[in-house]
Amino acid sequence: MQPVHVQVLEYLSTCNRFSDTPAAVADYLGLTKGTVSQSIQVLERKDYLTKTADSKDGRVVHLALTELGTSFLDQIKPIDIFEQAQKMVDGKGFSTIETALNAVLVELQKANNAKSFGVCHSCVNFIEKDHYYHCKLTDLPLSRVDATKICREHVLLEDTNETCNAP
Is 145 exposed, middle or buried (0-12, 13-18, 19+ CB in 10 A)? Predict the structure, then answer.
């Protein structure tokens, strides 16, 4: 299941009868009609949604979640991760909006078990060694440029208020 498929299902679980059309899905998600059409076909084959012709205008198609689609959404929806993130950052007294937003992002990534893809200097594996930057994971030196680029092996600092040895 692709993320776009989940987005389609989530939208359909919350929209009203005037907004349950493929065109409305495309508008809401900012996707092309082709992408939405392909996604709807996949979801229909998996029995997550049904298509029904409008009773007054046969050219209009209405979409609805099936029981299986609703059940699937219920299973994959994490406990309100935004609420969890809010609880984790409440009362921390952040000095800047950037620090606060980074803290929220960290908590959301943790809740979703998402890779962080952050810049080296904000990674637990980044160290300054003999006045040079170094990656503990690869045991290789990092140039000043490397240390400011996004890394797929990035591991979030546990304490987002911790100051980094930023280049």
Answer: exposed
**Residues β-bridged to residue 62:** 52
Total count of residues recorded for the chain? 167
The model scores a pTM over 0.70 = no
Domain range annotation of the chain? 3-76, 81-148
30-56 per-position pLDDT tens digit? 999 999 999 999 999 999 999 999 898
**What does the alpha-carbon distance between residue 79 and residue 108 come to, in Å, rounded to a whole number?**
12
Assigned CATH for 3-76: 1.10.10.10
In 57-154, alpha helices (H): 67-76, 81-89, 97-111
Q: Alpha-carbon distance 58 to 81, whole Å?
A: 40
123 alpha carbon, distance to own chain's centre? 20
pLDDT band at residue 8 using 50, 70 and 90 as cut-offs: very high
Is residue 117 within 8 Å of 151, Cβ to Cβ?
yes
